[in-house]
Amino acid sequence: MDNVTVVGLGRPDVRALAAAGLLAVTGSCAPEEQPADLILHGGRIVTVDAGLGDVEALAVRAGRVEAAGSDADVLRLRNPDTHVVDLDGRTVVPGLTDNHFHALGGGPGVDLSRARTMAELLAAIATRAAETEPGELVVTNSNWHEGQLAEQRLPLRDDLDRVAPDHPVVVVRGGHEFILNSAALSRWGIDETDESPPGGRIGRYDDGRLNGELVDRAKDPVTLPPRAAEDPAARFLETQAVMNALGVTALRIPGGTPGQFTMLRGLAEDDRLTVRVEFLFRLRGTSVDEVRDVVASWGVPPGFSAGLLSVGGVKLGVDGGFEGGWMREPYEEPWGRGGAFHGLQTMPTELFHGTVRELNALGWRVATHAVGDAAIDLVLDAYEQADAATPLAHRRWTIEHGFIPAPDHFERVRRLGLTVTAQHHLYVAAPSLVDYWGALRAALTTPLGRYIEEEIPVSLGTDSPVIPHNPFAVLYHFATRGTLSAGTMGAEYAVGRMAALRAMTTGYAYQVFAESERGTLAPGMAADLAVLSGDYLAVPDAEVPGLTALITVVGGRIVHDGR
Questions:
Q1: Phi-psi category of 135—alpha, beta or left, where left has phi over 0 and alpha has psi -120 to 50?
Q2: 132, 154, 194, 558: most buried by Cβ count inside 10 Å?
């Protein structure tokens, strides 16, 4: 069989045998060869395998790629029971992934995701207030950012007072900040006498009045009501359907609760997952003495897996987000408060070191949220201390986000064998980051090209709902460094479309110890793939964020068919 590679799917060492000359590939199907379950042909299949490149057709059997090659050769593997898809010239890529996915959407509050001006945002809040009894709480969702607004600024206390003076209002902005109006500040007893707590910031106007901003630990006193009664399993099933329609076949959940894990485990054991889920438990507010008991309460060992669900480690966090990344150098003025504000350290040094040490002793992998260069300093210090006790090499511990790496970080990261999860925050938040950190640091934010140049393993994702959940916007941003409203920033860190796709496929697979199973469409690999609405490698740059999946396949099973 010319121009086609065929392997036996039940034998993962077949490719090695063929490479060693112990397995012959012939010009026609052997009599004992079984037909394919699924064949896709007549298109451009981007295998992301260096040896294969692009092929015309792909055959799938028993959940794995059986063959990749020409239409004529691959179609020989069909029989009347084979599901055959004529791609009609469409492009196929390995399944897309999201390395940092909290949830879909920003919760049940006032939807601000479609607001494009301050007036539209405030009108949405005013409409909800008019529908709500005076004195009752009004809360927004978090699926928005001021970068989407023409004014490029946050709604503050006085803005909210004008549209909802009779209701306490809490605007939820990402995962690190609340903005309160006067009624809400009064409700939780926050006034001008309060000082910013350790690891938090209470915002003020130039005249010293509270402006309603509560960042990181400063928002701890504000307790929002729980979601209305709903089925979390049903919500996740809806989430995975949305992500499947975007070609996503794997999600990494960076810091969930034991209850969320139990729900996902039930879905996995009932074979109801249509995405692979790598789950990290979150440790927050836990003393070093409590770590062992908390970890034991989870009831699963490191590396546990069930169906499409696996446990990937423990998530910690040491600094804030856009508005609180912990920096060596102070923020730009006026945010820098005369050179005194460097961001927020949200976990005390000794607590972080001790927690990392305990988790390492228990055999758990650690992933730590670190945005600023000072935060990365702390992470590397603690990881190196843990490494001295039990080496981290080949365990692929992680830095989550890694917005602002310093030149002296890279050798330390390589020596420890760490990985980095990159997300496209700059795509949405560029104007805000320029305000907070200045143009140079903003343009550096998440320098994928530099990480790749330094041979640091990197994967890609969204941080949804902090940033919208579209993987094609991620690919667009890192390929071009284009942003929504600030043009191109940090063009020297752009990597092109193919390198961005590799980071989202093979980079992700490496990070979760699945590189021998996923990430490419070479024979023998899991059949996780997406048939795209347009050719990702050929459409104009501006069209990349608008791509979708016509068909998505996970483990050889079609989980989305939008044709």
A1: left
A2: 154
